[in-house]
Amino acid sequence: MLKKIVQKVKADHVIHCGDFCTSIDQLPDVSMTVVQGNCDWEDAPKESVWEAGRLRFYVTHGHRYQVKTSLLPIRYRVEEVDAHVACFGHSHFPVCEQANGRLFINPGSIAYPRGVRVPSYAVLQTDSTGTVHVKYYTPDGKVIAERGGSFVLF
Predict the structure, then answer these.
(1) CATH architecture of 2-152
(2) Where is the secretion signal located (predicted)?
């Protein structure tokens, strides 16, 4: 399913927040940042920082930061690495919120959503004004209108 989505979206870069639950060489062969989730047996980084233009992304699975309970621990880590955007998973629940000028995104899950009926993934786009636009989609490409938004980070 992930390969089909990646082929359809044609993103400049893909961020996978862990729980890929397969051998890492089975992931799509595209520009990708991937981190190890608590259900992964393959060796992958536990966290990563990726930069695109003026944006700095912090990527982690989230289980080490108790993201099911609060975003406060991951907020501290994002501030430590001076990232603009935090991408995380673990809860399988879509999150898109801004706090202290930083954006926190959980794409949800394309296979095993929790707390929501619809599986999801997120697409982030920037524009020339420095605004970040986040849209959520179902695996078949339908927009999930009640999720996402536009955020000014600079």
Answers:
(1) 4-Layer Sandwich (3.60)
(2) none
N-to-C CA span, the chain: 35
Cα–Cα distance, 64 to 17 (Å, whole number): 13
Please say whether the beta carbons of 92 and 110 come within 8 A.
no
Q: Which two tokens stand for residue 93?
A: 């629940």
Q: Which residues pair with 85 in a beta bridge?
A: 57, 103
What is the DSSP pairing of strand 121-126 with strand 95-99?
A: unpaired
Domain layout of the chain by residue ranges: 2-152
In tens, the pLDDT along 6-36 reads 999 999 999 999 999 999 999 999 999 999 9
